[in-house]
Amino acid sequence: MFVDEVTVHAAGGRGGSGVTSFLRQAYEPKGPPDGGDGGHGGSVRARATENVRSLVDYHHRPHRRAERGRHGQGDRKRGADGEDVVLAVPVGTVVRDRDDGALLGDLVRPGDEVVIARGGRGGRGNAAFRTQRRRSPGFHELGEPAEERSVVLELKLVVDVALVGYPNAGKSSLIARLSAAKPKIADYPFTTLVPNLGVVRTDPVDIVVADVPGLIPGASDGRGLGHDFLRHVERARVLVHVLDCASWEQRDPREDLAALTGELRAYRSELLDRPALVALNKVDADPETAEIVRPDLEEAGWEVLEISAVTGQGTEQLARRMAELVAASPSQEAEVAPEPRPVLRPTSARDDLEVETTKDGFRVVSPRVDRWVAMTDLDNEEAVAHLQQRLARAGVERALVAAGARAGDPVEIGGIEFDFSPELADLPADERAALAAELDGDASLEDPDDPDGDASPDDPDDPGGDASLEEPEEPEEPDYPDVGEELEFGAVTDDGDSGAAGRGRA
């Protein structure tokens, strides 16, 4: 079964969660945090190979998911990364986003790769959150959700010569005569419903020839599977128009050629710039027709050869001429994908932060902030408090206040709804007073012990307040290529989150 277009639903693997763990050993019952990070999830990639000729595998199994990353463990042990899923596709496959039609990659050489769905980053363990002020963090990050994407895989055959003609013109018989291909041959139109490939042995090079299913008027508009057939002509270096000379009473080969070139022009006008030959087939059955139409075609600028696919007359000359034109013609360039769409992870959440007003409240739009929420264990109070601090530092509260949010208003962030409860005590006194006035003059925002707001909060482990207040830096992102990026060469586990763990060691 030949399939040249299919939709694939791809999902990367979620990142593994970090773990909350503390060192336990003799004489140190309350040791430091040692929870390790989770592994990164696997990605789904498409890779071109010469060992695959059709997309039929993805017609029967269109859903593909990469493996998720493993959870971290105690003793700072990092979880294993999930395995990538590689989709082996034929050379000449074009990958497009199903929703917007954007070109992700054109795989025209063996080994060409493109990332379809990127896996999620592994979450950090509690050891990564230890600071001088937070010596025993009791929380960890969850694994980052992976990308999911539906793409259209479209095969455009990469061949040297395409045989183009009306149904029953003798194209299949010709490729069977020129090569070892064994296409279905019968005396009725539309015998060929899928392209047939054959390798023609010539001196000094071999060429790949495609027998394209017969075209009919209106093929450029999609009539009679026209688009499905014409796509296989796009990458051919040379076109051979096969015309039937044995049906003079029913059709004129000159009119057939004019109709064929008209369809090619309507589909992609640059196809007419390719080197082309005219093969007047079946001259053994009606040689007089060839004598009538050949002068007119040559006068119009066509190079004409008389052949008979049945007897072999003129086929060797045709093969040599095709090889000469192929050698003198450059290969067709692949479609150029736009610059890879960047993964939206700016240095600061302020760079991409937007607040939208909804009918029920407000919505914060920021891919980076959404990722923070998705990787936070909302059942852990300490983790939620850490998230609130990050949101405040990122300017989310100020953006909400500027948009008109008031205490108690529902706010949606990353698909989760919160009640807006601003924490403004860490702002300068003048700014806090101004914002407090905007928030209906809520006096509870002021600290009675520090009306000016310039005192440092005390920490039991750092009463002087001179310890570092900085959060640990986020780990470097995994070295994933961007979605849609082409590379030069190239089981799903349960979704349970890891919990707190205590370890013993003598």
TrEMBL record:
Main localization category: cytoplasm
Highest taxon listed in the record's lineage: Bacteria
Enzyme class label: hydrolase
InterPro entries recorded: G_OBG (IPR031167), GTP-bd (IPR006073), GTP-bd_Obg/CgtA (IPR014100), GTP-bd_prot_GTP1/OBG_C_sf (IPR036346), GTP1-OBG_CS (IPR006074), GTP1_OBG_dom (IPR006169), GTP1_OBG_dom_sf (IPR036726), OBG_GTPase (IPR045086)
Gene3D superfamilies: GTP-binding protein OBG, C-terminal domain, GTP1/OBG domain, P-loop containing nucleotide triphosphate hydrolases
A Gene Ontology biological process term: ribosome biogenesis
Positions bound to Mg(2+): S172, T192
Residue positions binding GTP: 165-172, 190-194, 211-214, 281-284, 308-310
Obg domain residues: 1-158
Cofactor(s) recorded in Swiss-Prot or TrEMBL: Mg(2+)
Keywords of the record: Cytoplasm, GTP-binding, Hydrolase, Magnesium, Metal-binding, Nucleotide-binding
Location(s), subcellular: Cytoplasm
PANTHER family per record: DEVELOPMENTALLY REGULATED GTP-BINDING PROTEIN-RELATED, MITOCHONDRIAL RIBOSOME-ASSOCIATED GTPASE 2
Protein name as it appears in the record: GTPase Obg
